[in-house]
Amino acid sequence: MDDGELVGQLTRLGLTSYEAKAYLSLIKRDSFTAAQVARQAALPRQRIYDVLASLVQKGLAVARPGTVVKYSATPPEIAINMLVQAHRQELLEMEQGARTMVDMLKPAYEAGQTHSDPLEYIEVLRDRRAINERFAELQASVKKEILVFTKPPYATPPQENVEGLDVSRTHEARAVYEFGVFDDPDVAEGVRQFIEAGEDARFVPELPLKLVIIDETIVMFGMEDPVAGSNDITIVVVEHSSLARVLKTAFDAIWAGGLTFAQAYDKVVTRSVHTA
Asked: How would you write the pLDDT of the chain (276 residues) with one tens digit per residue?
């Protein structure tokens, strides 16, 4: 093991790098003056007395008085054992402190377990980024089925919802859109891609609200701010199976009365072109 590795070992036992280098120099001779240790260990002269004093205080060196004070190393078997014992004592004190802390914290923790928020299953989101992230999380959590009422304003437009396409390919997916999707070719193309991926889609003149129902367990719905206008929306996420089942009944009723993509396209686009 070279000096560099020995310095590393000694610093892990609690010495500074200067102290480790000074001790490794001291063990190479019966005694050294401070200046000799500084040269031998390549340490700054202005720091050497502090370093040697620290080694003496820790029991790793002794000072020999005289015309010029000299320093000798404590034998390694004694010095290293002293460092290890110091760590053991420190660990023992930490363990005792930790047990005391546990005894102090445990009553508060146990009391806290009896208190819960009665509305902890309700989450309210207003920031568009937070809405997008939460919707992505919910789509990724689908195990069997996702049902969606899609209407503007879109947090994530259909043509940008890549995660939703993947869900439509691997799970049962049904969606209801407003006829207004055909007003924007990009949105209409995004919806068509969802249908090709496996989504069963229907179209109606107007939807009452934005809605997502996942596995008859989680509901996400949007409420437009009547004061701020339709561009501002509040999203509520509720994990409640009873509510999810009730809203699924309403979803099924609207979905059953909707038109297919071809029927809606013919009604909204083809006929408007012929009329024009």
From this structure: 677 899 999 999 989 999 999 999 999 998 999 999 999 999 999 999 999 999 999 999 999 988 899 999 999 999 999 999 988 998 899 999 899 999 888 888 887 776 655 556 788 888 888 888 888 888 889 999 999 999 888 878 888 888 888 899 999 999 999 999 999 999 999 999 999 999 999 999 999 889 999 999 999 998 766 555 555 678 899 999 999 999 999 999 999 999 999 999 988 877 665 554
Alpha-carbon gap, residue 240 to 158, rounded angstroms: 26
Indicate which CATH number applies to the domain containing 250: 3.30.870.10
With CA atoms as reference, report the closest residue to 138 among 214, 194, 251, 198: 214
Split into its structural domains, the chain has a count of 2
26 & 44 share domain: yes
Domain that holds residue 31: 1-114
Residues 257 and 218 occupy one common structural domain? yes
Q: Which residues pair with 238 in a beta bridge?
A: 122, 219
- My answer on whether 199 and 245 are in the same domain is yes
* Residue finishing a domain among 114, 149, 168: 114
- Asked if 238 and 126 sit in the same domain, the reply is yes
User: Do you find a cis peptide bond into 153, omega within 30 degrees of 0?
Assistant: yes
SS3 71: strand
The answer to whether 25 and 32 have CB atoms below 8 angstroms apart is yes
Put residue 214 in one of left, alpha, beta given phi > 0 → left and psi -120 to 50 → alpha.
beta
- Report pTM: 0.55
Give the contacts of 161 (CB within 8 A, at least 6 positions apart): 190, 194
Contact (CB, 8 A) for 60 and 79: yes
d(CA 212, CA 146): 7
